[in-house]
Amino acid sequence: MSEHAYIERFVNLLDPEANTIFNVTAEQAVEILGSGDAKKLRSIDGQFALVHRNGNIVRMARSIGRPMRYFLAKQVAGPCLVVAERMEEILEWLKAEGLADQFHPSYTRMVPAHHIVEIALLGCPDPNPNYDRFFEPERNRLPSDLDKIGYAYIAALQTEIAKWLDQIPSTEPIGVLFSGGIDSGAVFCATYDCMLKRGESPARLKAFTLSVDNEGQDAAQAVQFMNELDLGLFLEVIDVPASAIDFREAVRVIEDYKPLDVQAATMTLALCREIRNRYPDWTYLLDGDGGDENLKDYPIEENSELTIRSVLNNLMLYHEGWGVDAIKHSLTYSGGQSRGHVRSWAPGRKYGFKDLSPFALPNVIEVSEGIPFIELTDWQHDKLYALKGEIVRRGIEQITGLTMPVFEKRRFQHGVANDATFTSLFPADEQCYRDAFREIFA
User: Of the candidates 36, 71, 120, 353, which lies 20 to 30 Å from 60 by C-alpha distance?
Assistant: First the structure.
């Protein structure tokens, strides 16, 4: 009796041009991944999603800033691994191959950020992947001096922005998705200062702020922020009617149903759409996503699964969730910002922008994880929530000379519309978002 010889198949649908890598070429980055050496992979600087095949061994790895999914289809000849950015892309390929009946969104797998995922295509049964962490920043390594912490954090942020600017033609305009909050404010200030230090005119820089029906609090906040710095000429408030806001569209674009991420993506979609309408040739955007995760600035009281001890004791909890070995880890979505960052990435991608979230880059996260949060907060919520504004304000002033205004924290989606409009646009029941997601692949 002869044994069946499996013939494995590998399909890579990723767009290599969507990576933003600062220190090696895309080809070199893929070869580094192919070595399987986690330390070497950590040396790659930027925002990326990579895949490498060597025989029947496939390795995948990504940073937080770019999503990557895979799906293992079954064929008579052997297994077929499909790698793509979106569920939709995987489904369309399966349809073309006559394999769509195998698809279900829950069967797709998100590559968890900061890990090499290795799969051996060996046939039936489906193999379990191996995970090898390539990014493990040292915790609590910085002194408790807020001036030194702020300097290190914003210096890392500006360094990454400078590398990004190196790759952009000096004539290209640059937009910052801007609320006047701490994170988008820091990105704008760091970019503005970086351009001046490079001897470049900041005239090509613009801050875009969204408002719905002229009633968003962010618009007033953004105006005050810029006026206090005497930089009001860089601000453009973009007002859209409430009729332009559709959470169902955001569910389709991000292929997820978590309410907070859907709400943020809904507003980002509206902003990106209107920027595209006004500026058909605009390409480059920056945003402040990742700042809350880095400095652990989410209201713990709103999540019954969290305590301040779990937030401060676990490495990158807000970035990665509970981790690949935890029972709560979602294979379909991963966890934390590794799951949620699609709220920023996908809207910009849909409208043809090249977007960078510098706070989500490993070199910036590495500094934030080195902050001695426990020593600085003594496990007190109010001290933790006050920390981000102090660190960022001090860092921006030392690096740029700008005294950045710091306002009370407000989620992006809550700042662009008044309470009544927000309530009319977004259901309170999470099931509504799940139902909208289910309809996509019905």
Answer: 353
**What digits encode the pLDDT tens for the residues 348-373?**
999 999 999 999 999 999 999 999 99
Res 77: pLDDT: 76
CA–CA separation, 109 and 121 (whole Å): 15
Stretch among 28-32, 122-126, 212-216, 400-404 having the lowest mean pLDDT: 122-126
Inter-residue contact 342 to 256 (CB < 8 Å) = yes
Give percent above pLDDT 90 in the chain.
Answer: 94
Residue 20, H or E segment: strand 20-21
Indicate if the alpha-carbon torsion angle 306, 309, 310, 314 is positive or negative. positive
- Cβ atoms of 442 and 260 within 8 Å: the answer is no
- Tens digits of per-residue pLDDT, 167-178? 999 999 999 999
Output the pTM of the full model: 0.96
CA atoms of 310 and 96, how far apart (whole Å): 46
Q: At how many degrees (to 10) do helices 362-369 and 146-166 cross? A: 180
Query: How would you label 343-355 residue by residue, b for 16+ Cβ within 10 Å and e otherwise?
Result: bbbbbbbbbebbb
Q: Which of 59-63, 153-157, 409-413 has the lowest mean pLDDT?
A: 409-413
Instruction: List the domain boundaries for the chain.
Output: 9-133, 146-440
Cis peptide before 125 (omega within 30 of 0): yes
Q: Are 434 and 442 in contact (CB under 8 A)?
A: no
The pLDDT, as a whole number, for residue 124 is 63
Q: Please name the helix (run of DSSP H) or strand (run of DSSP E) that holds residue 208, with its range, or none.
A: strand 205-212
DSSP state of 128: P
Q: Is 78 exposed, middle or buried (0-12, 13-18, 19+ CB in 10 A)?
A: middle
Q: How far apart are CA 190 and CA 171, in angstroms?
A: 19
Contact 68, 83 (CB under 8 A): yes
Q: Could you give the CA distance from residue 234 to residue 177 in angstroms, rounded to a whole number?
A: 12
- CB 389 within 8 Å of CB 396: no
CATH superfamily assigned to domain 146-440: HUPs (3.40.50.620)
Closest CA to 214 of 236, 240, 232, 233: 240
Separation between Cα atoms, residue 367 and residue 68, nearest integer Å? 25
- For 17, the 3-state DSSP assignment is helix
CB 271 within 8 A of CB 265: no
Task: Using DSSP, state whether 397 is helix, strand or coil.
Answer: helix
